[in-house]
Amino acid sequence: MSKIPLGPIELGFIAIYLLSLIGIGYWGMRARTENSLKDFYLAGSGVGFMVLVLTLYATQYSGNTLFAFTGKTFRIGYPWLMSVHFMTSIIVVYLVFAPRLHSLAKRENFITPADFLEHRFAHRPYTVLASITMVLAIGNYLLAQLTSMGLLLQGITEFDERTAFIAGVILLAVIMLVYETLGGFRAVAWTDMIQGGILMVGFVVLLFVVLDHFGGLGNSYELLKSSKPEKVSVPNSIMIRQWFSYIFVVGLGGALYPQAIQRIYAARSQKVLRNGVATMAFLPLTASLVAVLVGITALASPELSGLSSEDSDRVFSEVCRIVMGKSVIHRWLVVLLLAAVLAALMSTADSVLLSVSSMLTKDIYHRQINTKASQAKLTLIGKLISLVVVVSMASVAIYLQSLENKPTLVKLMNMKFDMLMQLAPGFILGMYWQGMKANAPFWGLLSGLIAVFVLYFFVSSNNLTIIEEWVNFRYGPLKVTQGTLGNWGVHGGVFGLMVNILVVVIISKFSRGNKSSIGL
Amino acid sequence: MRDHKSKSSRLSWLLVFGFALLFIFAVPWYWGEGGEKPLIFGMPLWVGVSTFISFLISSLTAWVAFRTWPSDSDESEGDE
């Protein structure tokens, strides 16, 4: 991130905003109706329309949307418009399974996503493997958000870089942990409401500021047409395949985010959920599309011509740095934008943390270790697990930052969707196909994950054989981390899901296992 | 009853087909040379068309949600 040092008054404004989050956590604690997992992780009887939309929005659009989406557009140009489509496809997938999942969750008191799988298949190895898959996939995501928090503080203060990074990670992680421990899901959803509101305003401000300073889109097009025509041209065939692949992978993987599934559970009623989903369908046009237009404008700007593709994650902060010098009003608009970034990072991180904590508490501790624990004890264990997760993730973020070869945001999250989409047979097919055998999704998930890992580590864009790749992976620089089969433009998760579904169908059709379709 | 079921099943398949068609044409695979002019709001033509189709997908999603989502009273009747 580029240096955008803020003055004491501006930092004071951000400090007041952060302290208000702790106040909301306390308010959430006062609103508690009972000391139970359901109250702590799902706000008891659930949340209303406004809170649901803003918490879904704030959770789904993370720091990644602002940093990585503008950066990716800076690298590849208009074809990153695919981000608008893949974010919309998540909502389309909700149409398929959210109504039925919500009514089951209300009837059976589900708390974690794996509760549905346990109810549907009653196959303990599958429940545990699915839960571990989700924890690993989104644990990585939490790490990325914590890293970005450190980088943000590094950018807005004058401290020594290493000190600022460590202070940023620790300070923001502690604030998040305090309000979450105080108020649970209620605090997270209410702070999401403020953070989602700031983020929405932030996107509007961002578009206004960028178009005002750098000139309109027509101007950008003419500049790019002569200097970098491939960035505005119709994408080539590999990019087209990648576009289809992204719609499929993110549509399924994003809809199966555990923190999103828990928001389906937490909607107060079907009407609230329906209105929330219908509203969410339009929000990619206000978030992803803005990030693409900002990236294109920055790409065309002579002021940013010094930025290389490797530096593309700095596009957003460079835009802020350039704009804030124009006037006092512009400076405060940038402060508002930085608050929006902070909101995006924290709202995603707190939701992920709560989700990871609920899965480790309910799916692993309660189901496997201590089945007789009381609700009060489980809630306490959940809070302790949150503490352990935050301390370990913050330590990993600080350690990784000290390495020479730093992992970038996108690298950290490459496999997240490929892994999560392997849960689709259990959640979506299992919801409708009564003949699906209880052990089928377990073997399907295992095969799908193995296929994804093999493809991820052994097939890449540099035309090496598997053996050469392996030697390179073991002894050479780690260049093999490609989430996409670069030669063909299709994510490994797509092939993993094909294997996964094939295994599920074969076992369900030809084995004599138990169907176990309770209560569907 | 059977009539209602087959009607709803037909609607489901129609919607699957509709969404698939919209997503397929949202991806600009069918533009040859010259997919860039005229500019729409300063964006190349293929970007404008793709964005408009995205808006259509969002609208269809919202319409389907309002048209097919079960109400809370449907559920309590089903439970009884």
- The whole-angstrom Rg of chain B is 19 Å
Strand order of the largest sheet of chain A: 1-2
Query: The biggest beta sheet of chain A, please?
Result: 2 strands, antiparallel
Approximately how much helix is present in the residues of chain B? Answer: over 70%
Tally the beta strands of chain A: 2
What does this structure look like?
The complex is a heterodimer of chains A (520) and B (80). Chain A is mainly alpha-helical and 520 residues long. Chain A has a single domain, classed as Sodium/glucose cotransporter (Up-down Bundle). Chain A is built from 22 helices and two strands. In chain A, strands 1-2 form a two-stranded antiparallel ribbon. Chain B has 80 residues and is mainly alpha-helical. Chain B has one domain (2-67). Helix content of chain B is 71%, strand content 0%.
Topology:
The complex is a heterodimer of chains A (520) and B (80).
Chain A: H1 8-30, H2 37-42, H3 49-60, H4 63-76, H5 82-108, H6 113-121, H7 124-156, H8 161-214, H9 217-227, H10 237-255, H11 258-266, H12 270-280, H13 288-300, H14 315-324, H15 328-369, H16 375-402, H17 409-413, H18 416-420, H19 424-432, H20 440-458, H21 466-475, E1 484-485, E2 490-491, H22 492-510
Antiparallel strand pairs in A: 1-2
Helix pairs in contact in A: 1-8, 3-8, 3-11, 3-12, 3-15, 4-13, 5-10, 5-11, 5-12, 6-7, 6-19, 7-8, 7-15, 7-16, 7-20, 8-13, 8-15, 8-16, 9-13, 14-15, 15-16, 20-22
Chain B: H1 2-26, H2 45-68, H3 72-79
